[in-house]
Specification:
By secondary structure, the chain is of the alpha/beta class. The protein has 18 helices and 18 strands. It folds into 3 domains: 177 residues, FAD/NAD(P)-binding domain (3-Layer(bba) Sandwich), CATH 3.50.50.60; 166 residues; 86 residues, no CATH class. Strands 1, 2, 9, 10, 11, 12 and 18 form a 7-stranded mixed sheet that branches. It has a 7-stranded mixed sheet with strand order 7-6-14-15-16-13-17, sandwiched between helices. It is globular. It binds flavin-adenine dinucleotide. InterPro entries: Amino_oxidase (IPR002937), FAD/NAD-bd_sf (IPR036188).
């Protein structure tokens, strides 16, 4: 249970700023290792982007659309068996666009079959493609783009490019022009066994994580926004919240890397060379969502768990980001999502650009939100005729919403482009005791990426604390 900020002590071994999945995991691992940990979160609830909200008896999940099988091992090893035990597969993934309509379990076997029989790609080519992406790792040459990778194996086949790329663009914001490694690692993770979800919903997961933190002795304060990371004599000394300084041997920031460098830490603490690289970091895109709640007692047909739909003629990264995009993913949450909670909800997700939404006047903003909501319902009607009459709650989120709740620069949903990873990994060399965890480099984002990165950073911090 979170404690009021007024009850915090003056000193901890280390402080974690932010309770996204990366921050929660680092805090948990470090407390498990015996360190006294303070976790400070600006929002009233833990989880960061792994969150939910309740309206009119509905529970809407924000970022529980799907993650790779790797979460099973990660949760078992770094959280607990109960968390692992709630991970279940989503078997019904649907694509519908002007180039093809198909249903898949989104794993290597099924994709091999689809690429060979539906798209008429020779089996050897499919096999070579899978071998190439599965062999990609962080230390590879990063000059090849995903576009070049696709052209190498499937030249001119924009339909195949769409099948392979569209879900990954929704999953981590990467485009055809990002390094192929950002595609290969995430795609291979999914192809391992398919798409998985957390039965019971995000609220159950975060409660279980919160219980584990408490068991390991983490002091948690919500509604506690860190205003400043305090650095003295070139080393981290602590953080400042509402004028109170709390000291610690190390600080782990789960605030975005750009926030951490530009807003939380004095720029004079960093070398010019580091700052010039940090200033060049590009943040990833943000998101828009439309939340639809089905009236209690009404039912809807099973139309798939995830529907990647588009009326755009071909896949185009810019089209997916457009404020009037014709592409969206529907996540359909049936009663099985939350056993015992007999409700249906549907979330339409789109990628979005922060600037497109912040340049609008208040009136224009309301208008665009209403138009986006109307487009989402019209598109959903194509799969569930008459659904409009069954909806009793409608709400929309835009990049402005994501920025407000997480404080992320430009409301980024997936952290930064590739260059952010190196900055995040080396920040402690600039300011000893200062570490960053959280979505960076495309690779370290998503539920699995954020948790795994939380473990990596916790190991760094543990080593640092033991060395001083
Ligand atoms: C719409 C959407 C859909 C997504 N869908 C999926 C999906 O289906 N599958 C998947 O795997 N991933 C998905 N993701 C991505 C995934 O949710 C994120 O990559 C992951 O949750 C990010 O974790 P994080 O550790 O980077 O922290 P974040 O979740 O970004 O949290 C950072 C936390 O730090 C806090 N904070 C920031 N500054 C301060 C401060 N100064 N003081 C105190 N607290 C502070 C914030 O309030 C926040 O709680 C989705 C994301 C979005 C936006």
């Amino acid at each position: 249970m979170p404690v009021p900020f007024s009850q915090t002590k003056d000193h901890y071994d280390l402080i974690v700023i932010g309770s996204g999945l990366g921050g929660l995991t680092s805090a948990n691992r470090l407390a498990y290792c015996g360190h006294k940990v303070l976790l400070l979160e600006h929002h009233h609830r833990l989880g960061g982007l792994a969150t939910w909200f309740k309206r009119n008896g509905h529970i809407f999940d924000i970022s529980l659309h799907g993650f790779p099988y790797g979460m099973v091992k990660t949760c078992k090893k770094y959280w607990n068996r109960e968390i692992m035990g709630s991970i279940v597969q989503l078997k019904n993934i649907v694509f519908d666009n002007p180039q093809f309509t198909l249903k898949t379990t989104f794993d290597k076997n099924d994709f091999t079959n689809i690429l060979n029989t539906t798209f008429k790609i020779p089996l050897q080519t499919v096999h070579d493609f899978f071998t190439t992406v599965a062999g990609m790792n962080f230390y590879d040459d990063q000059s090849m783009t995903t576009r070049e990778l696709f052209e190498q194996f499937f030249p001119g086949r924009t339909d195949v490019h769409r099948l392979l790329m569209e879900p990954i663009t929704y999953a981590n914001g990467s485009t055809l022009d990002d390094p192929a490694i950002t595609y290969g690692i995430v795609f291979s993770n999914f192809m391992n066994r398919g798409v998985f979800t957390f039965e019971g919903g995000t609220d159950k997961l975060i409660q279980m994580m919160s219980d584990e933190l408490e068991k390991n002795g983490v002091t948690i304060c919500t509604k506690s926004k860190v205003d400043r990371i305090v650095v003295e004599k070139g080393k981290v000394r602590g953080v400042e919240v509402n004028g109170k300084v709390i000291t610690a041997k190390a600080v782990v920031s789960n605030s975005g890397i750009t926030n951490t460098i530009h807003n939380l830490t004095d720029r004079n603490c960093f070398s010019d060379e580091f700052l010039s690289r940090a200033d060049a970091i590009r943040v990833n895109n943000s998101s828009c969502q439309v939340y639809m709640g089905i009236r209690d007692g009404e039912r809807i047909a099973d139309v798939g768990d995830l529907l990647f739909t588009s009326t755009a003629p071909e896949f185009d990264s810019a089209e997916l980001l457009d404020i009037h995009t014709r592409s969206k993913t529907f996540s359909v949450y049936y009663p099985k999502t939350r056993p015992g909670h007999d409700r249906y909800t549907i979330v339409a997700s789109m990628n979005g650009r922060y600037d497109d939404w912040t340049r609008l006047t208040d009136e224009e903003y309301q208008h665009e939100k209403e138009e986006m909501t109307a487009r989402a319902i019209a598109d959903l009607e194509r799969y569930i005729p008459g659904v409009r009459e069954k909806i009793d709650w409608l709400e929309a989120a835009t990049p402005r919403t994501f920025n407000r709740y997480t404080l992320h620069t430009h409301g980024t949903s997936f952290g930064t482009k590739f260059e952010g990873l190196d900055i995040s990994r080396t920040i402690f060399k600039e300011v000893p005791g200062l570490f960053h965890v959280g979505s960076v480099g495309i690779i370290m984002s998503g539920w699995l990426g954020a948790i795994n990165y939380g473990v990596i950073v916790a190991n760094d911090v543990d080593g640092y604390i033991r060395s001083i």
